[in-house]
Amino acid sequence: MTIIRIVCIRIFTMLAVVLFAAAVKAEERSLYQRLGGHDAIAAVSDEFIARLAADDQEKRFFIGFSNDSKLRIRQHLVDLVCKSTGGPCVYTGRDMKTAHAGARITKADWDRSLKIFCEVLNKFKVPDKEQELAALLIPLEKDIVEKATCASHARRHRRLRAATGRRAGTARRALRAGPQWQAQKSA
Ligand code: HEM
To answer: Which of 30, 43, 50, 160 is deepest in the core (most CB within 10 A)?
Structure first.
């Protein structure tokens, strides 16, 4: 075997070892690291909150919070996502059941929020593999969504009636129509 052949074999072996080690290392990287760390998670969280707060179906949940309270919720969301993806953050907020109890978030609200979340991941061009982040949310549904009961149904009817002075069916249509209906009502 010539010297050149021996050198070539050695170089290829070393290259293979380096590539294998790099592949193993890539596998070992946490989802937090693969997403791009704290700043990337903060950007995704900010966009998610901004879209929820501007969404016709979801915005009712975010009315009435002071700026400081909104910042606290935002920081807790960033910390929770950071921690759940293997990042170095500490989550000091409430558990999901306590934080959302009484908000009457429905399954439809939940499904819509997931759709919005996926749109945000796409906007930030999060690769398919890292979109496993969305899967981390799924188990939270049971703590965030409240089951409708007869009492909650009746409460909703009363609320709609108080807000619009109409029966629930008409009231829902009126609320969907928004200011247009308000104008008709006062005419
Ligand atoms: C339909 C979807 C959702 C709605 C409408 C919603 C709404 C809210 C509201 C109104 C609050 C403020 C509660 C308060 O401070 O009184 C809140 C807090 C919070 N939410 Fe959600 N949420 C939704 C989904 C999620 C999801 C998917 C996550 C997790 C990734 C999440 C994580 C949090 C966190 C960390 C807080 C702050 C808890 C604290 O400050 O102790 N929420 N949410």
So the answer is: 160
